[in-house]
Design goal:
- A hairpin with a 5-residue loop joins strand 1 (about 1-5) and strand 2 (about 10-15).
- With about 200 residues, the chain is α/β, with parallel strands linked by helices.
- It folds into two domains: about 1-30 and about 110-190, Rossmann fold (3-Layer(aba) Sandwich), CATH 3.40.50.150; about 40-110, no CATH class.
- The protein is about 40% helix and about 15% strand.
- Helix 2 packs across helix 4 (about 95-105) and helix 5 (about 130-140) packs across helix 6 (about 155-165).
- The chain has seven helices and nine strands.
- The chain has a three-stranded mixed β-sheet with strand order 2-1-7, with no helix packed on it.
């Protein structure tokens, strides 16, 4: 999994996170809010809005969008080519409806996650944003699962576990970082119903 952290317009820091699972682990299909997924690509957002605007001008496009807003469903259409009938989810009456749905319901998580690091609240040289940890954990675990973090650093994954209902076990060699992680995770549990001691 590659994380892209845009520092400014000129440079990016890329970091790879390795994830291991017991038994038969799998990557879940998760959705991320549209704005969160595209926040670093304003040109893409503008393009999506222009596509919707152009399709709304046509009667069929306008009708498809109104139908979607009323029913919450996208009308699929079948097509026939070379005597083979295909009914693919990717073939819809209107691409603008797909974009509108992703804006309302979220977009599928991707393997490259552009995020801004929280330098203003950094306790560790390679600290990960808690929201990034939540997104990664949603891909690989279900609520109630136990996550082991052998390099817990400042505890971002521990805080994320508290926030999204996972059990957490962490270890850290440096006592100063362990103390920071312990404090952050305990503060996160105080805001929710998570049992810190267990």
């Amino acid at each position: 999994m590659l994380l892209s952290s845009p520092c400014n317009n000129l440079s990016r820091i890329h970091e790879t996170i390795s994830i291991h699972t017991k038994k038969s682990g799998c990557i879940r299909k998760c959705k991320v809010p549209y704005v969160e997924q595209k926040a670093h690509d304003i040109d893409s957002i503008i393009g999506d809005i222009k596509t919707i605007k152009n399709k709304i001008k046509k009667e069929a496009g306008f009708k498809a969008i109104i139908d979607f807003l009323k029913t919450g469903k996208i009308n699929k259409k079948s097509y026939q080519g070379h005597k083979i009938t295909n009914s693919l989810e990717a073939v819809y009456n209107d691409t603008a409806v797909i974009m509108l749905r992703s804006m309302m319901e979220g977009m599928r998580e991707k393997s490259i996650m552009p995020v801004y690091p929280a330098h203003y609240d950094s306790h560790h040289p390679t600290q990960k944003p808690v929201r990034l940890a939540e997104r990664i954990l949603a891909l690989i675990s279900d609520p109630g699962d136990t996550i082991y973090d052998p390099f817990m650093g400042s505890g971002s994954f521990g805080v994320a576990c508290v926030n999204i209902g996972r059990k957490y076990i962490g270890s850290e060699m440096k006592e100063e970082y362990y103390d920071v992680a312990y404090k952050r995770i305990k503060e996160a549990t105080a805001q929710g119903t998570f049992d810190f001691e267990s």
